[in-house]
Amino acid sequence: MRTPIIAGNWKMHKTVSQAVELCRKLEAALQDSPVEVVVCPPFTALSAAFALGMSKVKLGAQNMYAADKGAYTGEISPVMLKDVGCQYVILGHSERRQYFKEDDEFVAEKAAKAFEYGIKPIICVGESLEQRRAGQTTEIVVTQTKGALAKITPDQISDVVIAYEPIWAIGTGENATGADANEVIGTIRATIAELFGQDKADQVRIQYGGSVKPENIAEFMHQPEIDGALVGGASLSADDFIKIVQYK
Ligand code: 13P
Fold first, then answer.
1. Of 27, 36, 93, 95, which one is the catalytic site residue?
2. Backbone angles phi, psi at 42, to 5 degrees
3. Opening angle at CA 234, ends 229 and 236, nearest 5
4. 23, 35, 151, 213: which is deepest, by most CB within 10 A?
5. Which of 27, 95, 102, 165 is catalytic?
6. Which of 172, 211, 216, 241 to probe ligand 1 with, by most ligand atoms within 8 A of CB?
7. Does the annotation mark 130 as catalytic?
8. Does domain 5-245 have CATH number 3.20.20.70?
9. What is the pLDDT along the chain (248 residues), one digit of tens a residue?
10. Which own/partner pairs from 215-222 qualify as long-range (CB within 8 Å, at least 24 positions apart)?
11. Domain ranges in the chain?
12. How would you label 147-167 residue by residue, b for 16+ Cβ within 10 Å and e otherwise?
């Protein structure tokens, strides 16, 4: 049985005080949830969130650089993330790929580096609208999955989380259907099975992301291949994110 994992990607939102307030509300409301709950605030709020000493809500970062330290102006290392309590790090988000030109090879390097410090990667894959219309969805997600996992060992793979985020569904209010997402996620799992064997693939949690809301979360969570969600906009509201985690 895979434990469902629902993560909030706050992107470039929330000041320190706003982040603290949101964390407090989530920690108080979600204690009894069987779902693993992760929030990924901006870097500036991680330290204050860690200082809350939360027991239920885990912390993740939205990105990191693939080096321990050094002359990389503006970058954040896994050592620094570990220092502020991060257990997860989102890697290869489509916004990083699109605006900051990150490719699969770079994502693979970061994922391997994260594991050196015991930080679990949430690796994002997903096709654009153009690619979907051209019938390239499978090819794109298989290539991205293989590329991002290139440096992952058989010992590590069960701690990897994959987030399938079709780019056309991100922040658009247009979500994939549960059945569609389930099919693509099944393909991602088959790809992992090809690389690491079926037993390992059955342990990997694969999330759906893209316009997840309280109104549609159940449709995704009830699909057999979908093990959670990576939530953007709706994770900025305590009420909405609590409803999402408490889906029925
Ligand atoms: P939205 O939930 O705002 O569509 O964002 C999804 C996402 O990019 C999460 O990483």
1. 93
2. -65, 160
3. 115
4. 23
5. 165
6. 211
7. no
8. yes
9. 899 999 999 999 999 999 999 999 999 999 999 999 999 999 999 999 999 999 999 999 999 999 999 999 999 999 999 999 999 999 999 999 999 999 999 999 999 999 999 999 999 999 999 999 999 999 999 999 999 999 999 999 999 999 999 999 999 988 889 999 999 999 999 999 999 999 999 999 999 999 999 999 999 999 999 999 999 999 999 999 999 999 99
10. 216/175, 217/243, 217/244, 217/247, 218/247, 218/248, 219/177, 219/178, 220/178, 220/181, 221/4, 221/247, 222/178
11. 5-245
12. bbbebbeeebbbbbbbbbbbb
- Which of 97, 98, 124, 170 has most ligand 1 atoms within 8 Å of its beta carbon, as the pocket-test mutant? 170
